[in-house]
Amino acid sequence: CWWWCWWCSRTARISLASLQYNIIMKIAIGWYCCCLVMLVFLSKELLAEGSNRGADRDEIVAALQRIQPPTFRDASYSILDYEGCAAGNSANCAPAFARAVDHAAEQGGGRVVVPPGTFFVKGPIHLQSNVNLVLEEHAKIVFSADPADYLPVVLTRFEGVEIWNYSPLIYARQSTNVAVTGRGTIDGQGSKGFQKFRRKQRRDQNLVRDMGNQTIPLQQRVFGHGHYLRPSMIQFFNCSNVLVEGVTILDSTFWVIHPVYSRNVIVRGVTVDSVFINSDGTDPDSCRDVLIENNTYNTGDDCISIKSGRDADGWRVGIPSENIIVRN
Questions:
Q1: Angle separating helix axes 18-66 and 2-14, nearest 10 degrees
Q2: pLDDT tens, 252-302?
Q3: Is the separation of the CB atoms in 111 and 76 below 8 Å?
């Protein structure tokens, strides 16, 4: 701006016509004033942006201080200690898992341990408060591919709408201090079972959305048998102090790790390898204080997708997703 004024003044002095000089000086002064206004405006914007960035950093620091892994009682319950479960054969270990989780919860919590070996589970694993499902290295859970094994229906959220549907393969509801950890593998066998629902799901999918938009009472939104809506692989529904760490998850039924209405959630060091469509890696849904870090995703859809319900049903519930940190 100063250079422009100087140049205009010099040009004007060279001119012998005072009229030309006055015109040029008015233009120069006008430009100078415009530049000053722009400089003041930009300065305020930069200061505000810097202040907002500082506030954002403060919020991140505060969230990280709140997000802490759950702690568990120092007690272990091996699934092999419960009748009917053995590695390496087709024996159904679902009853052993249920008894181990119940026993651990009754005793105040602890680690339900899956030792090395392959264990077939014909139905869902329902976790409870203060229980950490631990898969040791070289341990593998292989879930049944038969949808009928995931009945009766449970309260869940399908694509942002609350319904009663097939149980997620690993599920916890209204639990505190709950985890799935270790160096083992979880195989959902989705490609052999629930993934076949996708080509038949349109009618039920539209029905769910209509029910949500029309605020149909929840007790009437019952799906499951005779319908074709896939359950999430791992879901924590209205839980707090949640940890999923270290495990490898294969061939999911639908969304892979799906916390809903949950607080203080950590998903860390997980490997997801599930390439069929809709196998989102981690989908926090109306959750608060979530840390997603150091994970590896090979999926047929989103690696991470942050959600908070769908349309009218999302507004009815009215729980946003907030304070979610994704890194590394």
A1: 180
A2: 999 999 999 999 999 999 999 999 999 999 999 999 999 999 999 999 999
A3: yes
The DSSP bridge partners found for residue 120 are: 92, 142
User: In the numeric block, which tokens belong to residue 154?
Assistant: 């449970």
207: Cα within 13 Å, side-chain hemisphere: 13
Look-up: residue for tokens 């949640």?
242
Where helices occur in 67-136 by DSSP H, the ranges are: 94-106
CA distance 63 to 290: 8
Which runs of consecutive H residues, i.e. helices, occur in 67-164? 94-106
DSSP letter string, 208-274: HHHHHHTT--GGG-B-STTS--PPPSEEEES-EEEEEES-EEES-SSSSEEEES-EEEEEES-EEEE
CA distances from residue 250 to 74, 117, 244 in whole angstroms, order as listed: 29, 16, 15
pTM: 0.85
Q: In what order do the strands lie in the sheet with 131-135?
A: 76-78, 110-114, 131-135, 176-182, 240-245, 263-268, 288-293, 322-327
Give the residue ranges of DSSP H helices in the chain.
Answer: 2-14, 18-66, 94-106, 202-213, 311-317
Cα–Cα distance for residue pair 236/129, rounded to 1 Å: 11
Does residue 59 surpass a pLDDT of 60?
A: yes
Read off the pLDDT of each residue in 51-66 and give the average, rounded to a whole number: 83
Among the listed residues 92, 306, 140, 277, the one whose alpha carbon sits nearest the alpha carbon of residue 195: 277
Contact 247, 269 (CB under 8 A): no
